[in-house]
Amino acid sequence: MSVLVSNSGPLIALSGIDRLDLLDSLFGKVFIPEEVAQECLAGGAAGSGVASFQKFEGFQVIQLPDPPNPLLTALLDIGESRAIELALQLQPSILLMDELRGRKVARNIYGIQVVGTGRVLIEAKRANLINAVLPLLAKIRANGYWLSDRITDEIIKQAGE
């Protein structure tokens, strides 16, 4: 069984709408590097979701012992870099990440399976954990989390809405 490793973006998006429970229901424990936990505690650009993040008990925060991979940190921010490193350590794993460059590096260079916030919402709807994806996407965007119109349209289409 694969484990879920997450970057900060999707956690900030889901905590901003108080729906981190979807990760617990779909995947069980979520593994995050310490650097990602620190980014989430800062709350992202809008500072939203910190209280939700703090009260969620489904995280396993991992302190990676080695210094960050310099190749990764040259391409990505520290949270993305460390999330990829943790996903490689906890094989087989699924990486939850929305940032396009990080997704490409994880998938194309390291062969890691990557999903995004939209996929979490789609799977939550399929599992009858939520009634609709569109209202949650609207709340996520209203909180300042950036998802392009193209991505949003594709998520809504895949959700059958």
Describe the protein in words:
By secondary structure, the protein is an alpha/beta fold. 55% of the residues lie in helices and 12% in strands. Strand 4, helix 7 and strand 5 form a beta-alpha-beta unit. Helix 8 (117-126) runs parallel beside helix 10 (149-158). It is globular and about 45 Å long. It starts with a strand and ends with a helix.
Give a concise summary:
With 161 residues, this protein is α/β, with parallel strands linked by helices. It contains ten helices and five strands.
Keywords:
161 residues; 5 strands; alpha/beta; five-stranded parallel beta sheet; single chain; globular; 10 helices
Helix share, percent = 40-55%
Radius of gyration: 15 Å
Q: What structural class do the secondary elements suggest?
A: alpha/beta
Give the percentage of residues in beta strands. Answer: 5-15%
Biggest β-sheet: strands ordered side by side in the sheet: 3-2-1-4-5
How are helices and strands ordered from N to C?
Answer: EHHEHHEHHEHEHHH
How is the main sheet built? 5 strands, parallel
Low-confidence stretches: none
**Mean pLDDT score, rounded?**
92
Q: How many separate helices?
A: 10
Shape: globular
What topology emerges from the helices and strands here?
Layout: E1 3-6, H1 8-16, H2 21-27, E2 30-33, H3 34-42, H4 50-55, E3 59-62, H5 70-75, H6 78-89, E4 93-96, H7 100-109, E5 113-115, H8 117-126, H9 134-142, H10 149-158
Parallel strand pairs: 1-2, 1-4, 2-3, 4-5
Helix pairs in contact: 1-3, 2-8, 3-6, 8-10
